[in-house]
DNA sequence: TTCGGAAACCTAACGCTGTTAGACAGCAAA
DNA sequence: TTTGCTGTCTAACAGCGTTAGGTTTCCGAA
């Protein structure tokens, strides 16, 4: 029995070593360098070994995405926990999101590209979704803002952050500017959600 | 000379036929079906012929992206031209953007994936960027809202639309819901930009 | 201690990909 | 008619993800 558990341990170890090595390659050389032979070679194995730990390349990439969302969630949660005011809590968490994308551009790309199945990615992102949801319901409660559909609010905020992070990946924009855009967008959303109801829209004819 | 112009015409024709065929394959079967042999075969040629019209597969894909942004721009401009009020003009154009993504999911994916170089994509999107910029400066002028950095505003709006369109591609969200999210996000941004300056942020300590 | 079986790993190969080289046909100009 | 260019082909290259089949290694039971 002790040997069999050791085997299992070794198996799990090999699996996580593959993931770790793949992460390094991804961050250093981008998604195009992530070949099965290359990943296996980096831990001094041949390609078929990968298929004893993952059903295929897609499963390995999904594991990378899952690990990525865990890290992202941890960083967002950490920042959210340190904030003093509820508004700062939202803004800082948004900043953390964009900062993560800026610090791990290739990983962030993989976390949002069609390389990995969209629904699998969404499932992996679930903790982040919930964090954003909690964050905004907390914010709304503190400001006594009624929310008919909190999930919708969360999705808007989450999608907006992703939009700004995407802009950051464009060379002529970059992540410093994207961070400012994210800040502005979030401030605008918060202001609107607080203001909503107090102001009707005074519209004007188009020129 | 007449024969040489005919040759040029035929060359240009073959090029655009390749693009057209590639577009059809893309929309029907997705980006993974877009292989050089397949595209060439669809116009009854062999693969190497593609390299006499494009420097490589990347150039062909970029041409698809450029054509896509032209169509997107045309649809947005058309919708913007029909709007009655300045607010509707912005909202309708935003809706058109998300609707385009919903109607051409694979093309939209290609227009935003890392498959094509990010800066090339950004260049191809320039008309759309300018349209959004004009739209929002017009909106601001109509409402007498001062804008210190119109480009920043435009980027926020544009990025937000992209964020919502990205959410639409997730199966459990979908484009009908994404369209509503886009509407809500844009309304919120407009409201905030109009309200800004009139309201300070009354913040509260985090719970 | 020896034997049987399972697990781990390898080599070799398949069919696919983007891409290039070199040969061949057909047409325009000299 | 000959020369040369243009367009197209076949054949091949290296690389990809993936699978089949054989070989080694090691554990547990007889």
From TrEMBL, chains A, B:
Q: Which PANTHER family match?
A: HTH-TYPE TRANSCRIPTIONAL REGULATOR BETI, HTH-TYPE TRANSCRIPTIONAL REGULATOR RUTR
Q: Superkingdom of this entry's organism?
A: Bacteria
- Give any Pfam family that matches: TetR_N
Q: Does the keyword Transcription regulation apply?
A: yes
Q: Per UniProt, what is one GO molecular function of this protein?
A: transcription cis-regulatory region binding
Species of origin: Sphaerisporangium melleum
Report what the protein is called: TetR family transcriptional regulator
Q: What keywords appear on the UniProt entry?
A: DNA-binding, Transcription, Transcription regulation
Q: Which residues form the HTH tetR-type domain?
A: 12-72
Instruction: Check the record and name the PROSITE patterns matching this protein.
Output: HTH_TETR_2
- As annotated, the DNA-binding region falls at 35-54
């Amino acid at each position: 029995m002790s040997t069999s558990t050791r085997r299992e341990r070794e198996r799990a170890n090999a699996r996580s070593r593959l993931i770790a090595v793949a992460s390094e390659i991804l961050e250093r050389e981008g998604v195009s360098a992530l070949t099965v032979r290359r990943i296996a070679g980096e831990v001094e194995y041949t390609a078929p070994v990968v298929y004893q730990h993952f059903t295929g390349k897609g499963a390995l990439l999904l594991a990378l995405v899952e690990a990525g969302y865990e890290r992202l969630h941890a960083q967002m949660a950490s920042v959210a926990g340190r904030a003093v005011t509820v508004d700062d809590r939202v803004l800082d968490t948004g900043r953390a999101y964009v900062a993560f994308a800026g610090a791990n551009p290739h990983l962030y790309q993989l976390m949002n590209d069609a390389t990995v199945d969209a629904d699998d990615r969404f499932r992996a992102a679930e903790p982040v979704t919930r964090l954003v949801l909690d964050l905004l319901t907390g914010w709304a409660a503190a400001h006594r803002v009624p929310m008919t559909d909190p999930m919708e609010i969360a999705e808007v905020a989450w999608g907006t952050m992703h939009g700004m992070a995407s802009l950051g990946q464009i060379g002529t924009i970059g992540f410093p500017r994207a961070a400012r855009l994210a800040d502005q967008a979030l401030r605008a959303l918060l202001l609107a959600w607080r203001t909503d109801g107090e102001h009707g829209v005074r519209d004007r004819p188009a020129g």
